[in-house]
Design brief:
Layout lengths: L1 E7 L4 E8 L2 E5 L6 H9 L3 E6 L14
Parallel strand pairs: 3-4
Antiparallel strand pairs: 1-2, 2-3
Length: about 60
């Protein structure tokens, strides 16, 4: 299992990339989804799950992408 925090200092927003057995879960995705797609490709994995743990009024989530 791989767990990586992806953090943006300018928005003070953290997200998590979790990969296990070729499946990826993204927790609280940032609006820019390219890092998740690139990381999944690097790991030869597929993004299967996206979880929003709480609402953020100060940024746009990438969960729709």
């Amino acid at each position: 299992m791989k767990i990586e925090q992806i953090y943006t200092g300018c928005l003070a927003q953290g997200a998590y990339y979790i990969e296990s057995n070729g499946e990826v879960a993204i927790i609280d995705p940032l609006s820019e989804v390219t890092p998740y797609i690139e990381r999944a490709n690097k790991d030869n994995a597929q993004i299967k799950y996206v979880f929003e743990t709480h609402f953020h009024a100060d940024f746009v989530s990438g969960h729709i992408e």
